[in-house]
Amino acid sequence: MSSRSEFVDYINQYEAALSLPDVTVSSLSRYHASKILRNGLAVSGFCALEDFLKRRAQEFWLDVQSNQVDFNNLPLKIQALVTFKLFYVLSNKAQHEYESNDLAGKISFAQTHAEYIASTRAGEGFTISEYAFGFENSNLKENQVSELLKSLQVKSGWEVMTQLTQALGTAAMSLNNAYISAMSLRHKAAHEASSDSPVTDLQNFRRVGAAIAFTYDVILTECTRRIVNGNGHYLQGGFLEVRDFAFYYIVPVESYWKIFLSSSSSRAKARCRSSDEAWDKVSNLPRAQEILTVELDRQHRIVDWRSC
To answer: What strand order describes the sheet that includes 256-261?
Structure first.
């Protein structure tokens, strides 16, 4: 199962958990069961988002290396990220993954990933380490996401993600700030036994967590397309801005499900009688095979997204 489908499933199960009566009980008791459940959701939710961001990056590397791309033609920032910038990460990973006296394990680990790095010299047929993004620290920090997107030549990555989300009407706040808030909520829930994660914060994470994941996916999908298609402007160092990204979105309006293109959302591209019909219809629209499609509910929350 892809990182995308797993996260979509998780976020819908997360919403179902939020609606359980025991989760919404208010209590002054220091260790009331409802507080424990809410704290568990705060930790689980952020961990699921972290895992998606890491795994989606790993899928990006796999897409790049499996499409007969010449490593030497990749933007220099990407080349740097998966070669010399990896050494610090790999050293830390070896220290944490193996016992201090397991020198043989550490040597084998180093040799394996050194071979991956060395394989990039050949141009084609290279392998990128699965630790190329997100493993510098125990938690994935917002600046690491920003640095990855910068390496992928996306100007002001968090700002681009926020602007893409605002087009959907799914979030009003900066996604960068939303990510920091969710991380803070997670840390407090994980390290303070008496903490009480507010239901409103958990409900907000349901909305913004999905928005962060989706817009991040939109960016990586477009970067993959440009690399695989040999886009000269991009491969020669051209930065991408919000206008360079597009997606379709399906949203219920009265008794219909309408399809819009994010870059021209003033007029619907199609009108359907059901969600299923809309998904069938969107697959035949221009560029549908290149870009993602997302479905919203009546509260403009993301409930699904896919590539056609």
So the answer is: 270-272, 256-261, 248-253, 292-296, 302-307
| pTM of the predicted structure, to 2 decimals | 0.95
Specify the DSSP class assigned to residue 72.
G
How many other CB atoms are found less than 10 A from the CB of residue 284?
10
How many other CB atoms sit within 10 Å of the CB of residue 91?
11
| 107 within 8 A of 94, measured Cβ to Cβ | no
pLDDT tens, position by position, 138-164: 899 999 999 999 999 998 999 999 999
C-alpha R_g of the chain: 21
pLDDT in tens, 23-60: 888 766 766 888 999 999 999 999 999 999 999 999 99
Cα–Cα distance, 25 to 38 (Å, whole number): 10
CA 300 to chain centre: 19
Tokens for 38? 């809410």
pLDDT 10s digits, 90-107: 988 888 889 989 999 999
| CA distances from residue 287 to 107, 163, 299, 300, 303 in whole angstroms, order as listed | 47, 21, 27, 23, 22
Determine the 3-state secondary structure of 51 from DSSP.
helix
Sign of CA dihedral 152, 148, 217, 205: negative
- Alpha carbons 238 and 15: distance in angstroms, whole number: 40
Grouping H, G, I as helix, E, B as strand and the rest as coil, residue 304 is strand
